[in-house]
Amino acid sequence: MYRETKIAIPIFKKDKNSALKAGKDYIKKGADILELRIDGLSNPNTKIVKDIIEEINFPTIITNRKKSEGGFFEGSEEERVAILQECSCVADYVDIELQTDLKYIKSIKNSAVKTIISFHDFEKTPPVDDLLAIVKKEKKLGDIAKIAVMPKNLEDTIIVLAILSRCKDTIAISMGELGSYTRIIASKFSSPITFASGDDTTAPGQIDIETMKLMLNMVFLDHDDLIKDVKNL
After folding, report:
1. What is the pTM of this model?
2. Distance spanning both ends of the chain, measured CA to CA
3. Contact assessment for residue 156 and residue 182, using Cβ atoms and an 8 Å cutoff
4. 179-224, pLDDT tens digit by residue?
5. What is the DSSP letter of 107?
6. For the chain, what are the domain ranges?
7. What are the residue numbers of the active site?
8. Of 32, 119, 138, 154, which one is least surrounded by beta carbons within 10 A?
9. Whether pLDDT at 2 is above 70
10. Burial class (CB in 10 A: 0-12, 13-18, 19+), 208
């Protein structure tokens, strides 16, 4: 059912006031969770991030993407992780990439309430077995596994559904316009979180919150038949 899957909207703003305004707007539009993209802030620091989260006072994921993971953080890796760790006490989730040094992942895990371990491939969709191995690694390190991959054809998007059908506590997204429907259908597989946009699109294929809520409340696929088909992949 829809309510099993929470809608997260990323806040991607350059300054504190803009982030606060956007957060309040996204809550009114129906977000269940806000994702504060720290790497979107100009010269981010621990105080600014904590102030934003505490003033919004709403369930929040904190994310600080480096360039190789599709982000914009320009500081050192130590600085990037330090902000996440120091702000984990006020966030509900910390998203840290699987490719991050293991010592940093463990430090985040020890300080965060819950962790999302994420993997991104902006060029392709790896085979099912490869993605299952990635999800297995992520689950050993954190609470929720996340993969976001780029499809080259419709068959690639079905691979993502296969991951959702086999893996609990997993966010799996096929990016781009071709894979945008996976953000909606994820609710049929009880994915914990899916992502929509408020005003700024932070990932290819993201759907606006109004359309997302409308589509999530529509019954347009038979759940049992869908599960059976993708499990056969």
Report:
1. 0.89
2. 24
3. no
4. 999 999 998 898 999 999 887 666 666 788 888 888 877 644 445 5
5. H
6. 2-231
7. 120, 146
8. 154
9. no
10. middle
Q: Are 98 and 141 in contact (CB under 8 A)?
A: yes
Cα–Cα distances in angstroms (integers) from residue 104 to residues 98, 109, 147, 198, 199, in the given order: 10, 9, 19, 31, 32
According to the model, what pLDDT value does residue 232 have? 58
Q: How far is CA 94 from CA 143, 152, 156, in A?
A: 10, 30, 28
DSSP secondary-structure letter at 88? T
Of 25, 230, 40, 1, nearest to 132 by C-alpha is: 230
Task: Specify the residue for token string 């979107």.
Answer: 40
**Both tokens assigned to 35:** 């994702």
The helix/strand count (H/E) of the chain reads as: 10, 9
CATH number of 2-231: 3.20.20.70
